[in-house]
Design goal:
The chain is of the alpha/beta class and about 200 residues long. The protein is built from 7 helices and 6 strands. May play a role in DNA repair. It seems to be involved in an RecBC-independent recombinational process of DNA repair. It may act with RecF and RecO.
Length: about 200
């Protein structure tokens, strides 16, 4: 049976990280909401889809072009932090400790998934580095196989341009237990230790 509720459930299930049980729960929740709440939800989705786009400089999601980060004169324009996704920009911004610019690759190198150099915003990064006075590029790709491969590729590419290339440190999360950490995390924590 293909009811409107089934179709709504299927649409929620298509979202990343949403399984069938959560999708069904969300569908039931939505149909029980007042009409104005549902219309506000639909309007928010429609507005986000129509008004958000990629910044022409850093390729982060924004409702303006260039985005507020790229156009902020108070930010350090000599440093660019390279990340995989717009969500990574948000995470780093929440820390409140980084005041440079960003460049969003929109993925990581993954030959098995058919993602190569031409599928990422690497060409745009190189062009951007020619047009600016950037002194340092921070590679903040994920610490997985794809992220590490992307970081290594970019490091080799950028070192020939005479720009300082750094990688974000890896280590234990705040409140984490050493005994439960994997070997790679512990190795990164020891290698990236800091003076106290």
């Amino acid at each position: 049976m293909d009811t409107p509720l089934d179709r709504l459930t299927e649409q929620f299930r298509r979202l990343p990280g949403i399984g069938i049980k959560t999708a069904r729960k969300l569908a039931y929740y939505m149909v029980q909401q007042p009409e104005e709440s549902v219309n506000a939800f639909i309007g928010a989705i429609r507005d986000a889809k129509s008004q958000m786009h990629f910044c022409s400089v850093c390729f982060n999601l924004s409702s303006t072009d260039p985005c507020p980060i790229c156009s902020d004169p108070r930010r350090d324009h000599s440093i660019i932090c390279v990340v995989e996704t717009p969500q990574d920009v948000l995470a780093i911004e929440r820390s409140g400790d980084y005041h440079g610019l960003y460049h969003v690759l929109h993925g990581a190198l993954s030959p098995l998934d058919g993602v190569g150099v031409d599928d990422l915003r690497i060409k745009e990064l190189l062009q951007r580095l020619q047009d600016t006075e950037v002194k340092e590029v921070i590679l903040a790709t994920d610490p997985d196989v794809e992220g590490e491969a992307t970081a290594l590729y970019l490091a080799r590419l950028l070192k020939t341009a005479g720009i300082r290339v750094t990688r974000i440190a890896r280590g234990l999360p705040m409140g984490g237990d050493i005994e439960y950490a994997d070997e790679a995390t512990l190795a990164g924590a020891v290698a990236n230790r800091q003076e106290m």
